[in-house]
Amino acid sequence: MFDFRYHALSLMAVFIALAVGLLLGVAIGDEELVSSAKDDVRESLRDDVRQANGERDDARTDAAEARNFIDEALPILTGGQLRGRSIGIVLLGDEAPETVRSVREALEPTGAEVELVAVVRESVDPEEIAGRAGGTRYAALDRDEDLLDDFGRRAAIQMVEGGRLIEEVRTALLRSLSGEFGGLDGVVLMRSPGEPEDEAAADRANALEDGLARGFVDAGVSTVGIERQTTDPSQISWYRERDLSSVDNVNEAAGRAALVFALAGADGAFGTKDSAQALLPPVVGGVAGP
To answer: Three-state SS for 154?
Structure first.
């Protein structure tokens, strides 16, 4: 006798077998699809990496060619611009040999000579200066530090023009000195971003540096404040507040060119930082002297 329950169970077994088969087929198919997709992604990423590497190499090549062009063009652009002029380099608080080297490289094709490199002490001793400034009003510096600003002004003028006072106080004022005072036609000034931790010493340094900057301006020679592109915090605003032209990237070829034209009389803030008015002065073939 036909058993309906047996027939129903048989049908269910068939349907289950079919379902399992479908699921296995889908799973196998999905695995193949995923594997294929992974291969496609890998190949796409490889293509992207190859393209990025190629673009990077092209950019490096372009940058190297640009640097070579600028290095070759710089002597042509600045050659003879400062012929016969004597330039002084004055560093406030930091010897900065790399920056001095950049300045020398900038001036090499111009016909100018670096006649003075002076490093001003970060912290000066008013008593020592007073002791060496006998016979002048600055002999009272140990009792009246308000004289430091005016002393700085007088010292800067005599760095440019020469004089007895600067010779007498040179060891009290300067950490190091190369060259002689007097006869300068231009000054390159670099201010270190650091200052003494002691508040009184910092106040003295600020007063002295203010006076020095004012003195170079009053001496009537082109004075340019400089820094490297990496200087932090930037000192450009300090220079501009004291009526100095400035260059914020003297370590770069464009900055060295800007320095030359600023020493030749171009006024402004030049470089690549936000404070810059232009990369270079708007001149071609030179500028008129001051």
So the answer is: helix
What's the pLDDT tens digit per position in 6-62?
555 555 655 565 555 545 454 555 555 556 656 666 777 777 777 777 677 666 664
**Domain definitions of the chain by residue range:** 1-78, 82-270
Is cis: bond before 233, omega within 30 of 0? yes
CATH pick for 82-270 out of 2.60.40, 3.30.910, 3.40.50, 1.10.1740: 3.40.50
Residue-wise pLDDT tens digits, 258-281? 999 999 999 999 999 999 999 999
CB 226 within 8 A of CB 190: yes
Parallel, antiparallel, or unpaired: how do β-strands 186-191 and 86-92 relate? parallel
d(CA 90, CA 212) in angstroms, rounded, equals: 10
Q: Is 246 left (phi over 0), alpha (psi -120 to 50) or beta?
A: beta
Least confident of 85-94, 100-109, 190-199: 190-199
